[in-house]
Amino acid sequence: MERAKGRLPGDARVRIVRSNELRRRKGYVVATEDVFDPESTVGRILDHTRAFLFGQRIPSDEEQGERVTKVTGLAIFASDNISSSAYATEEMMRALAYAGAAGLALTMPITIAIVLILAIVVTSYLQVVRAYPNGGGSYVVASENLGTLAGLVAAAALLVDYVLTVSVSVAGGVLAISTAFPSWEPAKVAIGVGFIALITIGNLRGIREAGLIFAGPTYFYVLSVAGVLAIGLFRVLTGDIPVPVAPPVAVPVSESLGAFLILRAFSSGSVGLSGTEAVANGVTAFRAPAARNAAVVLMVMGTMFGTLFLAISFLSTRIGIQVDLTETKSVLGLLTQSIVGDGAYFYVVQAATAIILVLAANTSFSGFPRLASILATDRFMPRQFAQRGDRLAFSFGIIVLAIVSALLLAVYQGSVSGLIPLYTIGVFIAFTLSQAGLVRHWLRERGPRWRFSAAVNALGAVVTGIVTLVVAVTKFQLGAWMVLAVMPVMVYLMWRIHHHYRRIEDELLIPRGARVALKAREPRLVVPISRIDKAALHALSLAHGLSKHVTALHISFDEDGAQSFKERWARSVGSEIPIEVIVSPYRALLAPLLSYLDAIDDQDPGRPIVVVLAEFVPRHWWDAALHNQTALRLKLALFTRPNTSVIDVPYHLGDPEDFEAH
User: Fold this and answer.
1) Which of 134, 170, 304, 337 is most buried, most CB within 10 Å of its CB?
2) Secondary structure (DSSP) of 128-151
3) In whole angstroms, what is the distance from residue 653 CA to residue 353 CA?
4) Which tens digits make up the pLDDT trace of 284-323?
5) CB under 8 Å, gap of 24 or more: what pairs does 635-644 form?
6) How confident is the model at residue 224 (pLDDT cuts 50, 70, 90)?
7) pLDDT value for 24
8) Rounded alpha-carbon distances, angstroms, from residue 533 to 490, 565, 615
9) Distance between CA atoms of 245 and 335, rounded to whole angstroms?
10) Coil, strand or helix: which one is 653?
C-alpha cells in the first residue's frame, strides 16, 4: 500500500500495490516462485544455470506427482542389485581361481547357494513391505521391535553400504570401459569421479526425473546381456562351445582348496545380494498402491538378477573363462568377447555394462538421503538431512553421499577388488536385524498368517546371520575390519547428536498449552565507529531511533588520534549521542571492544547489549574483498558472546541520508 499527498492540505491518496511475489490466502501470506527472481545480471545468469542443471523449482503440494511407477521404480531401486550380476561371478571366481580348476568347479554350486539365499531375502523383504508400508526398512523395523540401539546399528550398516555401493558400482563401470579401451585405465579415478558428479546432478533434479533419465540404461543392460547369454546358451546346447578369450594375466594357482577359500568365495559372490533392501526403504516413493507396487518391483528385481547371475556363472565355467589378475578386463567382458567376438555387439554390451554399473549408484542416491532424512527427523542426524531442496529431493544427503563416495573411490584408486572386501557386511548386518525384528513383530501382533510370516523371517534371520559371520571372518583382514570399526563410531555419533537435540529442546521449548506474557527488556546499544562518514551516521541514526540509551565507541591506536576524533565528534555530532574513546596502544580492536562490553555487563548484569555495526556495501561483488573485513571479524567474535545481539546496518551508495549537514 502506497500513500501520496493530495493537491489540497490534508488530502491523501492510497494506492493498493499487489505483489506477484506474495499472495494473501485466508489469513496468511503465500510466497510465490517470483520471490526467487534475481535483480542483478549475475544473479539471472546463475538462476538460469541452476534451472538448466537441476530444473525448475517444485512446490511442496506437488510431491505426489514426483512419485514413481513400477517401471521407473525398478530402474531407480533395483539397478544396484541387477547390476551386481556384472561382477558377482567374477569376484567369486577370483577367489576360487587361486585353487585352480578344482576351485573354479565350485562356481556353480556356490552360485546356486547364493540364489537360494536371495530367494529367502526377497521373501523376507516382502514381509517388511507388508508390515511397514510407510518405508524405513531395516532401521524402522529394528528400532520398533529390537530397540533404539539395534535400529542405529542397522542404520549405520546401511549408510556405510550405500557409500560403498556408489564407489564399487562406479569402479565396476570404469572397469567395463577399460575392458573395451585399455588405454583409458590410467584415468579411471578421474572418470569415476566425473560419473559420480553426473549422477549427483541427475538426482538433484528429483527422484521422478532421475528415474526417467536412468530407466533406459537399466533395461538396455538387461536386454543386451540377456541376448549374449541366450546366444551363449544356444551355442553350448548345440555343441558349438565358444573358445575362451584369454585375459592379459590370469590369476595364478597359489593355494590349495579348503573350507576357508570356499567361504571367502561365497562371501565375495554375496555382493550380488546388495541392493535388495532399497525397495523396502523407499516404499513411499512409489505411486499408490505404494506397498503393492514396491512388492512387484522387489519380485521382478530378484528374478532378473537370479536369472542373469545363474547364466553368467554357468557359461563362464562351461566355456572356461579365466579371471584377469590386472583387473583390466572383466569376466563378463571376456565372456561376451568369447561368445560374439569383438565386433559391434561386444562394444554394445560393454557400453551397457559400464552404464548400468555406474547408474547402479543411483540406488544409493535414492536410499541414502531417504534414510538420512528419517534419522534426521528422529534427531539422530543433523537436521539439514531432513530438508528438501528445490526439486523435493533431499539435496544435502545427496551431496554428502557424492563427496564421501568420491573420496573413497580416489583412496582405493578405483580398484573393484580393493573395495569389494569392505562391501556386503553392512548390508547383511541390516538384513539380520530387520528379519529378527520382524519375527518379534509377528509374535506381538499375531495377525492373519502370523505363524507363516514369523517362520519366513526367522529363516531369513538365521541365514543372513550366518552369512554375516562368514563375510566378517573371511573378509576381516582384507578390509572388513574397517567397516566393523567405523560402525560403532557412527552409532556413538548418532547417539550424541540425539542427546544434543533432546537437551537443547528441553531448554528451548515451552509447554504447548502455556499462555506467554512477554516482558519488555530495554537494551543498551553500542555503535562501534571507525570514522565519521555516511555509513557510520546511518547506523547511529537507526540506533538512536531504537533506544535513548545509545553509546558510540571509537578505538584509536594513539592518544593524538583519540583527541582528534573527539574534537571531530564534538563538531559534527555534538553531545546528543555520547562517545567513548578507547586508546589501544597494541593496535588491537576486538580485545578492547570485548573488555568494554564486559565492563557494561558488570555495571548492569542481565541487561541486554545490542552492538550496531555499520557496513558499507560496494556496488560490485568483486569489490567486497576491499571492505568490511573489520565488521566481519566483529560479527564472528560477538556471535558466541552471551547476552549480546548484533544489528548489521548495510549502507549502499545512494541510500537516503539520515542527517542534515550544516
Assistant:
1) 170
2) HHHH-TT--HHHHHHHHHH-HHHH
3) 59
4) 778 888 888 888 988 998 899 999 999 999 999 999 888 8
5) 637/590, 637/593, 637/594, 638/611, 641/594, 641/597, 643/601, 643/606, 643/607, 643/608, 643/609, 644/597, 644/608, 644/609, 644/610, 644/611
6) very high
7) 67
8) 53, 12, 11
9) 8
10) coil
Contacts of 160 (CB under 8 A, 6+ apart): 426, 483, 486, 487, 490
Instruction: Tell which phi-psi region holds residue 388, choosing left (phi > 0), alpha (psi between -120 and 50) or beta.
Output: beta
CA angle 644, 650, 651 (to 5 degrees): 140
What is the arithmetic mean of pLDDT over 625-637?
77
* Sole residue written with cell 565350485: 106
Q: How many CB atoms lie within 10 A of CB 22?
A: 12
Across residues 364-368, what is the average pLDDT? 83
Tens of pLDDT, residues 105-137: 899 999 999 999 888 888 888 888 887 777 667
Q: Cell 570514522, residue?
A: 531
Nearest-angstrom CA–CA distance, 52 and 198: 14
The domain spans of the chain are 68-475, 524-652
One-letter amino acid for residue 217 of the chain: P
Alpha carbons 47 and 43: distance in angstroms, whole number:
6
pLDDT, the chain, mean: 82
- Kindly state the cell numbers that stand for 487: 560402525
Q: Using DSSP bridges, classify how beta strands 12-15 and 2-5 pair: parallel, antiparallel or unpaired.
A: antiparallel
Alpha carbon distances (Å) from 588 to 561, 581, 585, 592, 593: 15, 14, 8, 7, 9
What is the pLDDT, as a whole number, of residue 604?
85
Who's near 60: CB < 8 A, 6+ residues apart? 388, 392
Is 646 in contact with 525 (CB distance < 8 Å)? no
User: Buried (b) or exposed (e) across 443-468, using 16+ Cβ within 10 A?
Assistant: eeeeeeeeeebbebbbebbebbbebb
Neighbours of 347 (CB within 10 A): 13
When pLDDT is averaged across residues 264-272 and rounded to a whole number, the result is: 82
CATH class label, 68-475 = mainly alpha
Half-sphere exposure of 349 (CA within 13 A, CB side): 24
Whether the upstream peptide bond of residue 289 has omega within 30° of 0, thus cis, is yes
Could you give the C-alpha distances from 208 to 69, 71, 74, 232, in angstroms and in order?
Answer: 9, 11, 12, 36
Tell me whether the CATH fold assigned to 68-475 matches the one assigned to 524-652.
Answer: no
What pLDDT score does 365 carry? 84
User: What Å distances lie between residue 223 and 216, 217, 228, CA to CA?
Assistant: 11, 10, 9
DSSP bridge pairs for 166? none
Which residues in 33-57 are b (16+ Cβ under 10 Å) and which e? eeeeeeeeeeeeeeeeeeeeebeee
User: What is the fold, at CATH topology level, of the domain defined by 524-652?
Assistant: Rossmann fold (3.40.50)
